[in-house]
Amino acid sequence: MLMGINRRHFLATPGLASVALAELGCANWEQGDHVLATTTLVGDLARHLLPPEVPVILLMGPGIDPHTYEPTARTVAHIRQARLIVGHGLHLEGRLTQLLEATHEQAIRRVFLVTRHLETAQPDRLRQSDCQWDPHIWFDAELWSDTIPPLAMTLAEVYPRHSGHIEENKNFLRSEFKKLHREMLERVKAIPPARRILITSHDAFGYLGRAYGLEVHAIQGISTAAEVSESSLRELANLAVEREVSVGFLESTVSPRTLEKLRALIKARSGSTAETSFRLGGELFSDSLGGAGSGAETYLSMMRHNLEVISGALSNG
Ligand SMILES: [Zn+2]
Known about the structure:
Rossmann fold; 4-stranded parallel β-sheet; 13 helices; about 15% strand
């Protein structure tokens, strides 16, 4: 089995994944030449480890919310054609999770989840929220760096003639992620302590807060598939007024609707003169990298983009 904790989220979903699985049939394990990556973030890891001649195809491109992704006939076709499927795990991929698990268990295709070793061997390094693992581990650059060696080992097994290249890239990539980690620590430390409060649409930034010393509050839980609770909106509005938080952050894969609602609530509590007391402080990339020209096309550029947006907005009050 690929995943251990809390199966209720995907077991409760209707039969689309099982229909899609039936369509997969019994493909040959060794067919296909490319890697299929479920999200932009795991695709970025695979692309930086492999040489350019091994194509890495993304199932979910930039801007797609993995929590609410629905497997389709196209998903099945991509799985059938891949040599290896690299997924994230910890239920980030929502309804795709069941399909990935069955694909691997029935030996239709090899599936590697980049968070699997953490879940099975180092669960104390993971966050939990509402009895589920928080999947957004990439926001802790040190933790994300630790997904590289097991992935590199799997890629070297599947593409043995590229093992030297993969090993070199592994070492370079880890050193770049560690450099980013130190940079993040320094930049957040430079924000005045009372202003280190991050309000966002959904709870994607818990690892960022834990690793770098930001207090994180979100309107929605760790999955965007969950309902938005009116009481959590009210509580957050109260907190923003009491602690004089003046900025909330939009997310690239989430509708701005709930943050607009929060802003209206804060305005109502603060009085009519507080038109500008709570503003939206720029867009963060949360569950997907940015598209071409966004300045957030890779993991490193996405993290640095977010750091600039957060540091700029919070430092200026
Ligand atoms: Zn998320």
